DNA sequence: CATGAATGAGGTTTCATTCAT
DNA sequence: AATGAATGAAACCTCATTCAT
């Protein structure tokens, strides 16, 4: 067997990922306000000073977490089908994710707030969000062309509405399902 | 005589309010992550150890800020008129406030996140939000009765949609105006 | 009796001075290499974090020590008499100080080296040394005018020789007495 | 064949020397206060943990640097000629070295201070200095016998004066030239 | 009420060193 | 020999809090 020896944590680049995920969990639990290098280290079972071997500074770790978290969110496999179906599917996926993984969205909201005072994070997050935005616009434009959009809805503004509602709904995940369903209903013609 | 002493900053309950407002400003600028008793004290020009005469502990100050901030938000003079007009007016007021005072809403989002780990805050905030919620329901029910609500919209769910959208829109105040206008348009029949 | 209560360290500006002197002692014992805020604090019997109440940063403390140490050195009451007597007296005083308080000069050498990488210290030290230098020049010029200087000695260069020899001699205080005596003998005509 | 392996940095004893010289450069730049194994390793392009294959501990490296540095200084080829010429030549050489290589002397002063708290270094340095001292005494005794020494100068004390002045002068290399020239002039009869 | 001094827990980071590979 | 990962002690600094004045 070529398995790694037991009793030793498997080092290598996996350790880096493990740290990022541990930091993500800390963030989900206590927000930036309570993000401590010690706790992150404890999360993977190493000494807190060892983190600096992988991430020279706390900010470096934070950046990695932002990258990880945003990637986590915007990695949806786009389905086939017409624009209306794809839009519906997208909204359904969002709804499902908020219900299934509420922490992910909580962390994303935490990032939104942090980015206001951290240009480095802002750049990453804004970049990722821009991808989402343009994707939404494309879907809405397609739906509009198919005559399936509620009348008088500008696709660009519609995209903003979706983004805003999803973000706001994620702050109260228990009601998020109904909210997004209603948004779907109002936005797309039956 | 109950006159304030001459030559001294007017202490008393005004000092308490000043501290709360200073804390609010700190919160708007740096979030809970960077809320420091020292900075709050500096904001009103007193020594940081003096805060404890007004608020025994930091948490006490935070509670007071939550009270102040939520009061700030839900202090809208309800207009006269029919339910539809009142609903429209309410949405317009929300839109205006987000655009005019974006920090207020940022602080409210900060509170939303903090409340997840702070039952004391949760109670206050949830209480205030419940007021907003029931008020929205009343308006929407009235609008529905007047036949002015989009068909198939449950007033309770509609209230949640408004809350979610307003919260999410406040995270990007520059686009909030259009988003809430579109929400109005989709929700209320012309 | 208006004496300060026993059992409590007498606070006030004395504490600041006590810290500077404690830092001076640490410096004398271990040099900058081993200068620790903890040890300085222990030297006056307070918690190490309390130092920051008096000196926001370590560098601030270091600057204060430099000020204290250099002041310590260049505070010689100039005697009356002719230039030759004053010069002789000055050299005798230097000799005495090196023998009596070797640590003072060790610390001064430590400062000389540190100042090479610390512009803030350099400014202070260079300023003080310039005072010494010009004072030496004056004395040597006076001695030259009185025909008491060794022939062919430029007062300015003579001042540098005194400075260099004193500094070097302080590195081996046990031999410093004889060295400075010899310097006196070579520099000043009997 | 004892040839070095191709394509690899020539390891072996050369690596050891390279490390010592890198450490010397670090010392010249930042003193003991800022001497870091990491920086030394970076100076020769290897990982910092690899140093320990050549020097088990930092102190071992320091000892090697002391040996290297002191050897650097006292490796003067003694010239032929009479004692007076040899003395003059020696002083001229010292002057030249301070002017040409000021860092060498700065490092030596750094060592003088460190040796006060490090018996191991003290032994090495004192041993080397003793060689210099006795050599100076011999030269001065010779000069005295030739009637070329300033009257009333004890060779032993004269040697101390030279040592002290050279050390002190090295702390301000820009003025060292004139100072040592004046010392020569005062000590040796024209 | 306000302050200055002090505290102590805890934060991030640094660094020499060790060890398996 | 060299490396990457980990360690643990220790460094400077921050901050809410307490207390005597």
Report on the architecture of this protein:
Four copies of one chain form a homotetramer. By secondary structure, chain A is mostly helical. The first copy, chain A, has two domains: 13-64, Orthogonal Bundle (Arc Repressor Mutant, subunit A), CATH 1.10.10; 74-187, Tetracycline Repressor, domain 2 (Orthogonal Bundle). Chain A is 71% helix and 0% strand. Chain A is built from nine helices and no strands. Chain A has helices spanning 13-30, 37-44, 51-54, 58-73, 83-100, 102-115, 119-145, 155-169, 173-187. Chains in contact: A-B, C-D. At the C-D interface, helix 6, helix 8 and helix 9 of C face helix 6, helix 8 and helix 9 of D. Chain A binds a DNA duplex (21 and 21 nucleotides) through helix 3. Chains A, B, C, D: GO terms for molecular function: DNA-binding transcription factor activity; transcription cis-regulatory region binding. Chains A, B, C, D: Residues 36-55 bind DNA.
